[in-house]
Write a structure and sequence with these properties.
By secondary structure, this protein is α/β, with parallel strands linked by helices. The protein is about 35% helix and about 25% strand. The chain folds into two domains: about 5-175, Thiolase/Chalcone synthase (Peroxisomal Thiolase, Chain A, domain 1, 3-Layer(aba) Sandwich); about 180-275 and about 295-325, Peroxisomal Thiolase, Chain A, domain 1, CATH 3.40.47.
C-alpha cells in the first residue's frame, strides 16, 4: 500500500474591505509612516469593524469549497488556529462549521499565536496520514483589532485582521507535508501576552481599567527571539531533509516584521525572489499570515515545488513545515 501524505489541494483567503494606512494611524497615536515602515515594513492593514473571527473564516472557507468543488457535507474535520476566538467557548471552528453548513464535520480551536497555522497544518496532516480522514480544513484567522490598544503605538501599528483556509486531502504521489519541526517555550509569555481574560486574571473592573485585555509586547525581546529561532528552525528543517537553497522554491514566512523575514531568508541562503512578502499590505494577521501568502502566490506555485513554511509567535511558539505543492493552478 502506498504511503499516504497530506496534500494541500486548495487555498482561499479573506480580508476585510476597510484599509487603515500608516497615515490613518498617525492621526490617533503618536507615530508616522516613516517610523512604522522603517521598523516593520508595514504600509497598511485591513480592519473588520463589524463581525467576528468566524465571519472572516467562513468567507475564506466558502471560497475554498467553491473553488475546489467540495460539498460542505463532505468535510470531516475543521482545525481553526486563532487567538481571537468569537467566544471562550464554544470553539470558533464549530461556529464556522455551522455558518458554512459543514454539518458532518467536528472541529476545534488551536491556540499558538502566530505559529497557529503551522501547528494546525501539522496536526491536520496527521489526521490525513492516519488514513481515517479524507477531507480536513485547516484555518488560520485573527481579528487582532479586537484586542489592540490604539493608544499603544508599539502594538497597534503591527497587526491587522484577516485569514485563510486550506483543504487537506490524501496524496499517493509523495506531494504534501513532508516534515515539520514545532517548538515552544512558555517562559516567553512575559514578553508577548494578553494578560487578562483567562482564568489567571478573569475580567474585573480593575483588569479593564488597567487595559489588561489588550496585547502587551516587549518588542526588543520578541524581535531577538524571533530572529534567532525562526531562522534556525528553517535552516534545521532544510538540513534534516538534505535541502539546499537551490532545492527550495519558496519560503513562506510569518509576516511579523520585514527584518525578521530577511534574516530568515539570509540564514537559509535564499534570494528575495523566493520569499513571499505581503506584510506591506496586510500587516501581521497572526494565524492568518501563512494561508494569505499561499493564497496570494497560488498562481505562481507549481506541482512539486518545495515550500518551507516558518513562523514565530507569542508564548513563545515557533516552527517550520516542509511541504511539496500538490497542484498547478
Amino acid at each position: 500500500m502506498s504511503t499516504i501524505t497530506a496534500a494541500i489541494t486548495g487555498v482561499c483567503g479573506y480580508l476585510p474591505e476597510e484599509i487603515v494606512t500608516n497615515e490613518d494611524l498617525s492621526k490617533i497615536v503618536d507615530t508616522s509612516d516613516e517610523w512604522i515602515t522603517s521598523r516593520t515594513g508595514i504600509k497598511e492593514r485591513r480592519i473588520l469593524r463589524n463581525g467576528a473571527s468566524s465571519d472572516i473564516a467562513a468567507e475564506a472557507v466558502k471560497g475554498l469549497l467553491e473553488k475546489t468543488g467540495t460539498d460542505p457535507m463532505d468535510i470531516e474535520l475543521v482545525i481553526l488556529a486563532t487567538v481571537t476566538p468569537d467566544y471562550p467557548f464554544p470553539a470558533t471552528a464549530n461556529v464556522v462549521c455551522d455558518k458554512v453548513g459543514m454539518k458532518n464535520a467536528w472541529g476545534y480551536d488551536l491556540i499558538a499565536a502566530c505559529s497557529g497555522f503551522i501547528y494546525a497544518l501539522s496536526t491536520g496532516a496527521s489526521f490525513i496520514e492516519s488514513g481515517k480522514y479524507k477531507k480536513v480544513i485547516v484555518i488560520g484567522v485573527d481579528k487582532m483589532s479586537s484586542i489592540l490598544d490604539y493608544e499603544d503605538r508599539t502594538t497597534c501599528v503591527i497587526f491587522g485582521d484577516g485569514g485563510g483556509a486550506v483543504l487537506l486531502e490524501p496524496n499517493f504521489e509523495g506531494m504534501g507535508v513532508q516534515d515539520s519541526i514545532l517548538r515552544s517555550d512558555g517562559s516567553g509569555r512575559q514578553y508577548l501576552i494578553q494578560p487578562a481574560g483567562g482564568s489567571a486574571n478573569p475580567p474585573t473592573h480593575e483588569t479593564v481599567e488597567q487595559r489588561m485585555h489588550f496585547v502587551k509586547q516587549e518588542g526588543k525581546q520578541v524581535f531577538k527571539f524571533a530572529v534567532t529561532n525562526m531562522a534556525e528552525v528553517s535552516a534545521e528543517i532544510m538540513e534534516r531533509n538534505n535541502l539546499t537553497a537551490d532545492d527550495v522554491d519558496w519560503l513562506v514566512p510569518h509576516q511579523a516584521n520585514l527584518r525578521i523575514i530577511d534574516a530568515t531568508a539570509n540564514r537559509m541562503g535564499l534570494p528575495k525572489e523566493k520569499v513571499m512578502v505581503n506584510i506591506q499590505r496586510y500587516g501581521n494577521t497572526t494565524a492568518g499570515t501563512l494561508p494569505l501568502c499561499l493564497w496570494d502566490w497560488e498562481s505562481q506555485l507549481k506541482k512539486g515545488d518545495n515550500l518551507i513554511l516558518s513562523a514565530f509567535g507569542g508564548g513563545f511558539t515557533w516552527g517550520a513545515v516542509y511541504l511539496k505543492w500538490a497542484y498547478n493552478s
